[in-house]
Recover the amino acids of this structure.
């Protein structure tokens, strides 16, 4: 607590905006600011982002870093739009530009309830952002995607497609969480007298169309059961 207060003072921090899981820290740090005779910065605490089940967003929900969404090829503008809208609003506006977000943002628009991460809504915003892009920018995004997809296609030979076809039925039932998926994929790999690492390449290519991706399990959780099975079926 002391280190945080001293650091804020040395850096000249005047406004603190952080998650509401730090709300109890605000009282402790205020006591220290007062004891040292320093002005207390303005403090605001915003709701955390929760998963679809209402629990704090975590890896078991498929929570990823922003670089992972870039690898999956979500549009940066759409991701910024969506993240800005989580826990904050400007009337009923859902789709907006970076410039509008900068002009509109204020703390009065922060909600009091936790926001829920919804991949379908993010995908919808991607579509809207894509429709607003000029031809040159859209062509660049498509070219980047196709370059990666031609490299990933090498991982989907006849043998790999056959393995994916056998794997799909094993994923159609059971729980859809990280631990359960790890068990299913590792057990399937063992039944094929191989290790999961050998399945990773074809799975990355089938799920993301890329040779380099975030964790296979994270992608499966983000995509959900139906979309994962659809992509594996298409690839097979």
């Amino acid at each position: 607590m002391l280190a945080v207060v001293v650091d804020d003072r040395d850096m000249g921090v005047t406004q603190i905006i952080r998650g509401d899981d730090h709300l109890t820290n605000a009282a402790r740090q205020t006591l220290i600011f007062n004891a040292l005779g320093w002005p207390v910065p303005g403090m605001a605490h915003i709701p955390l982002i929760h998963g679809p089940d209402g629990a704090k967003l975590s890896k078991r929900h498929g929570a990823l870093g922003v670089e992972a969404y870039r690898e999956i090829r979500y549009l940066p503008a759409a991701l910024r739009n969506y993240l800005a809208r989580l826990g904050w609003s400007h009337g009923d506006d859902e789709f907006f530009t970076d410039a509008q977000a900068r002009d509109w943002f204020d703390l009065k628009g922060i909600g009091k309830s936790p926001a829920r991460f919804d991949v379908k809504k993010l995908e919808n915003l991607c579509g809207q952002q894509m429709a607003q892009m000029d031809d040159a920018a859209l062509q660049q995004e498509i070219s980047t995607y196709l370059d990666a997809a031609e490299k990933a296609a090498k991982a989907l030979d006849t043998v790999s497609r056959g393995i994916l076809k056998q794997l799909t039925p094993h994923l159609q039932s059971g729980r859809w969480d990280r631990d359960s998926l790890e068990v299913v994929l590792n057990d399937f790999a063992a039944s094929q007298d191989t290790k999961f690492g050998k399945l990773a390449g074809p799975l990355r290519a089938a799920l993301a169309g890329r040779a380099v991706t975030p964790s296979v399990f994270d992608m499966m959780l983000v995509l959900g059961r139906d979309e994962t099975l659809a992509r594996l079926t298409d690839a097979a």
Observations:
- The beta strands are 15-19, 42-46, 49-50, 115-116.
- The longest strand covers residues 15-19.
- The chain is about 55% helix and 5% strand.
- The chain has a mean pLDDT of 88.
